[in-house]
Design brief:
single chain, 138 residues, mainly beta, four-stranded antiparallel beta sheet
Length: 138
């Protein structure tokens, strides 16, 4: 997986151009309610098939604070994508930022919410599309 991602006011995209599936996808969003303080929230997805793209509509994403059951729409706050983490078919954890793709030690950071303020959850299933080129064509 090249782990490409991008976001904006319209959609959050994660692309897997590899011929192998990836798992334990975590997207860290920086969220601000006051335009001064930015807090980390995690949007998690179980996995992504080979040669596919997952698309999240921010209008269908809800913020949940840790320890609180109340939710609020992501569209009510300012947000940006900070990083993406995933595990490849060999069990290797990868971290992607806007500029880098790096191997991470073990599986730390995946599946835990250390440092997170809360979670981002979809109201329904995200849109998944097939992408081309893929694998050795990419």
């Amino acid at each position: 997986m090249d782990g490409s991602f991008w976001g904006g006011t319209e959609r959050i995209h994660v692309v897997n151009r590899s011929p192998d599936a990836v798992s334990f996808i975590q997207i860290t969003l920086r969220v601000t309610k006051d335009k001064e303080t930015w807090e980390p929230y995690t949007l998690a997805e179980r996995g992504l098939h080979p040669c596919s793209e997952i698309v999240f509509d921010p209008a269908k994403l809800q913020l949940t604070e840790l320890g609180d059951d109340a939710t609020s729409p992501l569209t009510d706050v300012g947000w940006d994508i900070e990083s993406l983490h995933f595990i490849d078919r060999k069990g290797q954890l990868w971290s992607r930022t806007e500029r880098t793709l790096t191997k991470s030690a073990g599986r730390s950071g995946v599946g835990d919410a250390d440092g997170d303020t809360g979670a981002v959850t979809p109201d329904g299933p995200p849109q998944i599309k097939t992408v081309e080129p893929c694998g050795s064509d990419a």
